[in-house]
Amino acid sequence: MMWGCVTDFFTYETTKSVVVKSWSVGIINRVVQLVIISYFVGWVFIHEKAYQVTENSVESSVMTKVKGFGYQNNYVMDVADYVIPQQGAAIFCILTKVIITENQFQGTCPEYSKKYSCVKDEDCAQHIGDILSNGVITGVCLNSTIENKTGRCESEGWCPAENDHVEVKPMLDVINFTIFIKNSVRFPLFDVTRGNFLSTMSRDEIMKCNYHPVDSPFCPIFSVGDILNYTNQDLETLANKGGEIGINIQWKCNLDYDIENCVPRYSFTRLDKPFEKNAISNGYNFRFAKYYMTENGTEFRTLHKAYAIRFDVMVTGKAGKFDTIPTLINLVAAFTSVGLGTVLCDIILLNCLKGAEQYKAKKFEEVSDAQIEASLAHSPVSQLSLKGGIKSSYDSGAISLATSDQAM
């Protein structure tokens, strides 16, 4: 037993070429090889550019400016009024509707919502600690002058309490606003820096252009109305409830060509679309306040509940350049994969065609030292006897085997 394991360990296997003259097997072999070669040439090398070293991490800077005028609450609104933040960041909001609660002072007052209706103090005890109120619920029921003098729970905080159910017309002039985007990117692996202004565009051309995916695809000025059209949004609904729009700048650069061909591509999407029809939290709104001081030093404020279209400018990038190492790796993978045709044909020959046993006998042969010595002693010149029907190939170490194309 032990000696058998030792002899099995010290054995050597070498390939043996068998030339099979079969039309069906030959066609299958060439078709499989053609498919594999087409895959590597068409998909791996041409489409995926596997001969390049690539970089997906991009260093990016975005600056924005909004232009336009609109009417809100009978006031003319300019950029300083409706853009938050004003610094021109990659994420900014355009206010489309604002509900204002003026002259709020610190103190106690009745809540406005019917949720806090009460007849006696015990009715307000259940609301103590409620975080959805306009202040800290004290547990006292007040006879409010709102809605037929029905009682409301008292809250301590900024008074009077906010009423955010006031009907306010949205600023539909937002459709005429424009957004100017200045974007620069850098691919650190290749030390390449690019900007979204074409070098061929003059200052006058940039100031007068308006982005269009076909007519003016590299213009950095975008109409808000066009962006809403690209994302299939209803202006009045979006201005009333607010929402979030994504502006994606994609850089896909093949650095084997002229650097001027490294240009951005723009796309637009509604980022909060999954919540568009959500009854609990649809749209986009937030609150902010402006603080003032009376003559006697008492602080008061004006509260704003703002509905806005939030714009997120997102930058993605990928750059590639020819490199020897990935080219060699993928060439080796391609040449190795071509051998899959041989594996498939072997399976067919060994299992599906008549003469499979003959093929097995010629493909797999075991030779021992004793057989070699006996063969040399019997015929020192010839080491291989060929049976009838088997012809020697012109290739060294190969034999030719004729098989039938009929399946078993």
Automatic annotation (TrEMBL):
Membrane topology: Multi-pass membrane protein
Disulfide links within the chain: 109-159, 118-141, 124-153, 209-219, 253-262
Entry GO terms, CC: plasma membrane; postsynapse
Keywords on record: ATP-binding, Cell membrane, Disulfide bond, Glycoprotein, Ion channel, Ion transport, Ligand-gated ion channel, Membrane, Nucleotide-binding, Receptor, Transmembrane, Transmembrane helix, Transport
One Gene Ontology biological process: response to ATP
Reactions this protein catalyses: Ca(2+)(in) = Ca(2+)(out); Na(+)(in) = Na(+)(out)
Glycosylation (residues): 176
InterPro entries membership: P2X3_purnocptor, P2X_extracellular_dom_sf, P2X_purnocptor, P2X_receptor, P2X_RECEPTOR_CS
Listed name of the protein: P2X purinoceptor
Origin species: Notothenia coriiceps
Gene name linked to the record: p2rx3a
